[in-house]
Description:
Layout: E1 3-6, E2 11-19, E3 25-33, H1 36-50, H2 58-69, H3 75-93, H4 103-115, H5 126-147, H6 153-157, H7 173-183, H8 187-199, E4 210-211, E5 231-232
Helix pairs in contact: 2-3
Amino acid sequence: xxxxxxxxxxxxxxxxxxxxxxxxxxxxxxxxxxxxxxxxxxxxxxxxxxxxxxxxxxxxxxxxxxxxxxxxxxxxxxxxxxxxxxxxxxxxxxxxxxxxxxxxxxxxxxxxxxxxxxxxxxxxxxxxxxxxxxxxxxxxxxxxxxxxxxxxxxxxxxxxxxxxxxxxxxxxxxxxxxxxxxxxxxxxxxxxxxxxxxxxxxxxxxxxxxxxxxxxxxxxxxxxxxxxxxxxxxxxxx
Length: 238
């Protein structure tokens, strides 16, 4: 595995040939390494990724997972997954080799996530905890299905959190009419709520439909529900 000195810049670079998925030889080069060791380490990691060698670190496999999955998912979906990976998974598993991640490691990470409290003393919600676990499990399962990792340690450790959050309540038609009467002297707000109520709009549902389950504005006391649950087949941007 060669590395070369760029005498003009005082840095190192790696240059080598590898076989792509079509079986063709391609040249790979990357410059700007401060040391020869860094250049050789980058080449070794690249070769491991191409050879699907699960001796690579979790952080290196995330790069493989990203290349496999990013183009298959909607942008917002991928950005959500990316945020979870970067903030919740890489800090704990990034330096571990894929073959060395054990169920006990996952359990310790789960305990950290369950024990987390923000500045107000609030923990992560049950649905968010489940989302975090599902993302870790998805990455490991991808390695099992397509890159011959022996087992999914997240699946063995078991899930955390719950799938469904708190039950959502909705305004009845009569309740909404009472609310609308109060809002009629504020045209912009009135028409906005009219659209929300009668179209049942909420962006971001996974099934490409739009559903209304907004909570009521807190200043309107006595109104405990907001709008009927409706679906629209066309997306609406507000």
